[in-house]
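Milestone 3.1: sequence recovery, worked example.
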């Protein structure tokens, strides 16, 4: 199966023959990894520029925490958080900007503000989301999630996690193509930690090649996630080494984009992978 080596996203055509590092910019006071340090526009922009200096190829900007148990934020509050950051970054950056949201209204405003990619944990299932992305030239990341963030980790259940996640992603690809979203604009993500036990997450990474069979570039996000803490120990701030192992394994198993907090360390680790592979 041939996988697109170019990812068309907004103003950009990303070359995926080299793995791309997507740096996380949380604009949330309750963010699980930055403790709210970057909640104001200026600090978020400053942090984003630091990630670019460290080698980020893409920035993923989010205004609502999706960690297990997190409460949703209102549309107005999410817009207030992310739109000024995207507007400011689109004027000064040369990397694609991704909006991490499942809300169609936020997608629309973010694209107008300069977002190049829609990163949707709901895979464009909200009413109107497919139409908004189709009407733009933004790239999209379709992610699998069982349940909703508030309750998804209470009792995740699958007969065959790999087959079910793969079928879900295949169905969402069909929905995108039917709405006129070109295949070169689509990336897929099994959604590590989103309604999955440790065993489910391990099975997904072991079988990442099965998702590559769908013919679309894979994005993997494991950075600082609790599954790494359950495997290796340590709280969120102590999961760097486990996260680097996860990024390296993901890329060696076919991931084209890794979504991470620790950009410099990941870029260095992936240089070693590139030298070897
Ligand atoms: C927003 N967000 C949090 N975790 C994520 C993951 O694993 N993948 C994607 N695409 N987005 C994520």
């Amino acid at each position: 199966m041939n996988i697109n080596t170019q990812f068309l996203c907004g103003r950009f055509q990303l070359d995926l023959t080299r793995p791309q590092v997507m740096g996380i910019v949380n604009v949330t006071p309750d963010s699980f990894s930055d403790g709210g340090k970057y909640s104001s526009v200026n600090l978020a922009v400053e942090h984003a520029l630091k990630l670019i200096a460290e080698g980020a190829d893409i920035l993923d900007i989010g205004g609502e925490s999706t960690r297990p148990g997190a409460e949703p934020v209102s549309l107005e509050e999410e817009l207030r958080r992310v739109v000024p950051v995207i507007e400011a970054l689109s004027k000064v950056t040369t990397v694609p900007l991704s909006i991490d949201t499942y809300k169609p209204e936020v997608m629309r405003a973010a694209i107008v503000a300069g977002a190049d990619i829609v990163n949707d944990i709901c895979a464009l299932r909200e009413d109107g989301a497919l139409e908004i992305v189709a009407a733009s030239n933004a790239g999209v990341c379709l992610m699998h999630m069982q349940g909703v963030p508030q309750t998804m980790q209470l009792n995740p259940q699958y007969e065959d996690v790999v087959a079910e996640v793969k079928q879900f992603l295949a169905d969402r690809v069909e929905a995108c193509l039917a709405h006129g979203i070109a295949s070169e604009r689509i990336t897929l993500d099994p959604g590590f930690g989103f309604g999955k036990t440790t065993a489910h997450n391990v099975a997904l990474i072991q079988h990442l090649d099965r998702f590559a069979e769908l013919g679309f570039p894979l994005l993997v996000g494991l950075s600082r996630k609790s599954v790494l803490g359950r495997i290796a120990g340590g709280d969120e701030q102590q999961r760097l080494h486990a996260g680097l192992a996860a990024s390296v394994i993901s890329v060696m198993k076919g991931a084209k984009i890794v979504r991470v907090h620790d950009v410099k360390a990941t870029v260095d680790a992936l240089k070693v992978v590139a030298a070897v592979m």
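The chain has one domain: 16-276. The chain has a mean pLDDT of 94.
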